[in-house]
RNA sequence: GCCGAGGUGGUGAAACGGUAUACACGCAGCCCUCAGAAGGCUGUGAGCGCAAGCUCGUGGAGGUUCAAAUCCUCUCCUCGGCACCA
């Protein structure tokens, strides 16, 4: 018995595959295309177990489909812009660009150690001007179509760092960097008008593409379309979805930020209202969200309820949000729980509504979704291609001047203004219109812009004339399967759909959804069952595991753990078990006989059954049961004295997507020796990964005899071995079943009222 | 509170309405060994029994069906998302 030592074979084959360019895809051939995509990694520095999990899935599918004769594209790139790079760079005193490029190199090497069949000639890096030029181009197109605009938006604001923070950079209501309490502030910023696409982004039933239901429901809820009326109460406009309850409206409530608050406040209420508003404004976002108790103050003004004809008071309260509807509501405490709480708290009247009111109003559709703020007062991102001129105002950078390159020499440490403002040579420029002195926009784009369309660019990454070649994209999109995380449901997965619909409007593409299928992968937790994190010290480092067990063991272990969406701990014993499985395969050649091809019916049946199982399971993305099928077959083969070349090769082929290195090594034992010249393959097709996928033959799948369970009153009492040729004959099967002594025992002395026979499965007697 | 996904052995998990627990981990016994490691064989849902076998069993309670982990109703729990959206 030889010991299986993965380090002796894995890097050897990785080098061989790379040098022979085994995984290049020819995009000009699109007859049988298969485009598999995994969400691109962030350039954090090291691949973690999550990357291994998701990229192994993509890799298994890519290899399987390639074997089936598909022209497969399995690309990858890097999400290389963003705050963590800046932060790490500030901490370590390295320039964000140098830090990022170093990480990308390292991560590419780590992808190699995983043995992925990634075609690295179809790639992108968000921080490469070749790529972000087209972010800028998209921005200009948005501007042209009226979909990009400068607007004021209530945002998370860190008063210490003087910057807007994305929601995900607010931790427990505090700035993730300095810990200062985040406040809500109106900030002037660039926005994309995603609201214009809200209706198109709503998922219909049945869905236009096979995306996960939680994503479809989540996105629809997030878009939050509701239809109602705008009603006018003496000049105060309110939005309601239940105009029929207007007769029960006993007061009005304005959001604290509502522009009419000042005008409506009576002199004697002025102090009360002002102190209430300043109290609310001083609260952090978190405090406002957490506190569900109703607070508010009377303005001193009254308005007329047009339906009841009564004067009703106008209040200010923070349970009404400025960001939704008109920022003012009519309160119907009889019909609405929140209004009722407020009415009780402040002793306001609650009167019954008839639900038959028909007030005059204007039809209005409201959305929970807000326009997408893309401005970041940060350095490490795509510069927004805008120039401010004293004479001409806001001037877009002309297309032919793109890309606006991010300057290298910048003081990117936070100092209360956008870092780009410190690059004075860069900021001061010429107005494209009047040629006079002008200044560049110093904000950069949200990195979610980068990832909203990268999968288009993989198809034509070097194109500097246009964003992509329409012909190639027409042929290769929509992609077949997109593997990603459920945490992107409301961010990336929505933005990328928005861009797709925008591209269609521009005439760049002809389809509505960019992925035919999306699946949400699970999470590998630490051995202690908690999310892996450095601070917990429960991180399982893939590099260490590679040294110990090899890449094939990790890949196989991750795929065998459970379904692709499993959330489960890493098990040190589990991976050891998989290593033992590979060790047994490593010794298969000991049983191999080349010139003895006699296979029994049993041998053939289990072989073809396994081919069928692995093939069908992979087609339905059930990696774990496919591997279980291979284990069963190996258990069978292990009991045999000798195994034939056909069995050996078929087994290796079926295993090869999961464990590409060991299968290549063992394959070469019988195939490779005389196909190599000077240490190079004469022809790449002699790699196991260029061999075609095994086919199963139905004639070996029909069992000679089958077990049929016999039930009496719903309980299994016996199991009969029935010959194939009498399985379809109900009377005969029934007769045999009734003769069984075990069955007799339960039927004796009683009469059979009913018999149900499911062919080849079960026969059921009711007595 | 609302929405979504789930609850099956000691553990990760299998199972077109048709013999629940495949496959693997762990554990136990035996073989091999000076010994250990590695490997091999056997057993492993619970209860009763020497055994054949019987009874119970997929969070809980009902229901539909010859037959339910699977379908229906109610309920409890876990995880994820959203959350004063008028």
From TrEMBL:
GO BP of this protein: leucyl-tRNA aminoacylation
Family annotation (SUPFAM superfamilies): Anticodon-binding domain of a subclass of class I aminoacyl-tRNA synthetases, Nucleotidylyl transferase, ValRS/IleRS/LeuRS editing domain
One function term, GO molecular function aspect: aminoacyl-tRNA deacylase activity
Catalysed transformations (reactions): tRNA(Leu) + L-leucine + ATP = L-leucyl-tRNA(Leu) + AMP + diphosphate
Superkingdom of the source species: Bacteria
Chain location of the short sequence motif 'KMSKS' region per the record: 531-535
All copies of domain Aminoacyl-tRNA synthetase class Ia, residue ranges: 12-559
UniProt keyword list: Aminoacyl-tRNA synthetase, ATP-binding, Cytoplasm, Ligase, Nucleotide-binding, Protein biosynthesis
GO cellular component: cytosol
Chain positions recorded as ATP binding sites: 534
Compartment list: Cytoplasm
Short sequence motif named 'HIGH' region, residue ranges: 41-51
Enzyme class, broadest EC rank: ligase
Residues spanning the signal sequence: none
PANTHER family tied to this protein: LEUCINE--TRNA LIGASE, MITOCHONDRIAL, LEUCYL-TRNA SYNTHETASE
HAMAP family: Leu_tRNA_synth_B
Family according to the record: Belongs to the class-I aminoacyl-tRNA synthetase family.
Protein name: Leucine--tRNA ligase
Gene designation: leuS
């Amino acid at each position: 018995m030889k010991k299986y030592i993965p380090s002796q074979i894995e890097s050897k084959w990785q080098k061989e595959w790379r040098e022979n360019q085994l995984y290049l895809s020819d995009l000009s051939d699109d007859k049988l295309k298969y485009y598999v995509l995994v969400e691109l990694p962030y350039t954090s520095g090291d691949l973690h177990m999550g990357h291994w999990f998701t990229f192994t899935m993509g890799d298994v599918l890519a290899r399987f489909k390639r074997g089936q004769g598909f022209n497969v594209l399995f690309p990858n790139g890097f999400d290389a812009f963003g705050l963590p790079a800046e932060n790490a760079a500030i901490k370590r005193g390295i320039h964000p660009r140098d830090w990022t490029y170093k990480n990308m190199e390292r991560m590419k090497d780590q992808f190699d150690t995983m043995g992925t069949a990634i075609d690295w000639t179809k790639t992108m890096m968000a921080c490469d001007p070749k790529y972000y030029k087209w972010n800028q181009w998209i921005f200009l197109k948005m501007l042209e179509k009226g979909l990009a605009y400068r607007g004021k938006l209530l945002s998370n604001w860190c008063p210490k760092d003087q910057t807007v923070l994305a929601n995900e950079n607010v931790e427990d209501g505090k700035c993730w960097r300095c810990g200062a309490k985040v406040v809500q502030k109106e900030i002037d910023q660039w926005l994309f008008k995603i609201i214009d696409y809200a209706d198109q982004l709503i998922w219909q039933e049945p869905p236009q593409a096979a995306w996960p239901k939680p994503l479809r429901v989540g996105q629809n809820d997030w878009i939050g379309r509701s239809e109602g009326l705008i009603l006018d109460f003496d000049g105060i406009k309110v939005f309601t979805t239940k105009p029929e309850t207007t007769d029960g409206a006993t007061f009005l409530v304005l959001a604290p930020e509502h522009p009419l608050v000042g005008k409506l406040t009576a002199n004697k209420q002025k102090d009360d209202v002002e102190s209430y508003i300043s109290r609310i404004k001083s609260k952090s976002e978190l405090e406002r969200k957490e506190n569900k108790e109703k607070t508010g103050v009377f303005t001193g003004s009254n308005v007329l309820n047009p339906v009841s004809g009564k004067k009703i008071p106008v209040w200010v309260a923070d349970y009404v949000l400025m960001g939704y509807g008109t920022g003012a509501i009519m309160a119907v405490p009889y019909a609405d729980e929140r209004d009722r709480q407020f009415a009780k708290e402040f002793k306001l009247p609650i009167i019954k509504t008839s639900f038959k009111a028909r007030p005059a109003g204007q039809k209005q559709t409201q959305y929970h979704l807000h326009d997408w703020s893309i401005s970041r007062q940060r350095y490490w991102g795509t510069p927004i291609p805008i120039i401010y001129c004293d004479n001409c105002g806001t001037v877009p950078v002309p297309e032919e001047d793109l890309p606006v390159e991010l300057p290298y020499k910048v003081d990117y440490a936070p100092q209360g203004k956008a870092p780009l403002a410190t690059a004075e040579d860069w900021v001061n420029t010429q107005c494209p219109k009047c040629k006079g002195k002008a200044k560049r926009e110093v904000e950069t784009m949200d990195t979610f812009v980068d990832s909203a369309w990268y999968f288009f660019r993989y198809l034509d990454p070097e194109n500097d004339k246009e964003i992509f070649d329409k012909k190639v994209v027409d042929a290769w999109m929509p992609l077949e399967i997109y593997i990603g995380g459920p945490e992107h449901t409301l961010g990336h997965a929505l933005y990328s759909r928005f861009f797709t619909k925008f591209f269609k409007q521009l005439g760049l593409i002809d389809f509505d959804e960019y992925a035919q299928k999306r699946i949400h992968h699970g999470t590998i937790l630490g051995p202690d069952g908690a999310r892996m994190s450095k601070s917990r010290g429960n991180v399982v480092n893939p590099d260490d595991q590679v040294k110990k067990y090899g890449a094939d063991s990790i890949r196989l272990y991750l795929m065998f753990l459970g379904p692709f969406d499993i959330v489960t701990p890493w098990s040190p014993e589990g991976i050891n078990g998989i290593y033992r499985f590979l060790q047994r395969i490593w010794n298969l050649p000991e049983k191999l006989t080349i010139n003895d091809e006699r296979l029994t019916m049993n041998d053939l049946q289990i072989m073809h059954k396994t081919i069928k199982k692995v093939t069908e399971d992979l087609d339905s993305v059930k990696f774990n049961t496919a591997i279980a099928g291979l284990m069963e077959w190996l258990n069978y083969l292990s009991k045999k004295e000798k195994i034939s070349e056909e069995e050996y090769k078929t087994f290796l082929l079926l295993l090869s997507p999961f464990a590409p290195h060991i299968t290549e090594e063992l394959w070469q034992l019988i195939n490779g020796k005389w196909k190599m010249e000077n240490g190079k393959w004469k022809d790449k097709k002699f790699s196991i990964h260029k061999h075609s996928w095994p086919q199963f033959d139905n004639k070996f799948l029909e069992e000679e005899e089958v077990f049929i369970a016999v039930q009496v009153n719903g309980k299994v009492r016996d199991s009969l071995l029935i010959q194939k040729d009498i399985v379809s004959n109900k009377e005969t099967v029934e007769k045999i079943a009734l003769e069984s002594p075990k069955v007799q025992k339960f039927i004796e002395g009683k009469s059979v009222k009913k018999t149900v026979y499911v062919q080849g499965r079960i026969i059921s007697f009711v007595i």
